[in-house]
Amino acid sequence: MNTIYTVDVITLNSWLESTEAIILDVREPYEYQEGHINGAINIPLSAILVEIDQIKDIQGKKIVLQCKVGGRSMRACQLLQAEGFVHDVWNLEGGINAWKEAGYNIKL
């Protein structure tokens, strides 16, 4: 069984700068459009299992899931794990709110 990890915003920023990770924003499209982490792929929690094909072939990168505060993204991690997703996944601790509070930019 694969593992669900948590990651803090400082570490995630480092991973994104070094292209070591990809980030999936599991919020609804209207939330994503209000502001998101640069490079984030928007796959809402409600569609995560339907859209899993977009991410199943990712190799060599950490897969980080993110929402507003961390609850929906943890649920998405659990759903992926329950469906036999073959990668370890990371949940962004505190979500995009923590990202903004740390002073990192968001893309509108």
UniProtKB/TrEMBL annotation:
InterPro entries xrefs: GlpE_sulfurtransferase, Rhodanese-like_dom, Rhodanese-like_dom_sf
Pfam families for this protein: Rhodanese
- PROSITE patterns, per database record: RHODANESE_3
Domain Rhodanese, which positions?
Answer: 17-108
Q: What is this protein called?
A: Rhodanese-like domain-containing protein
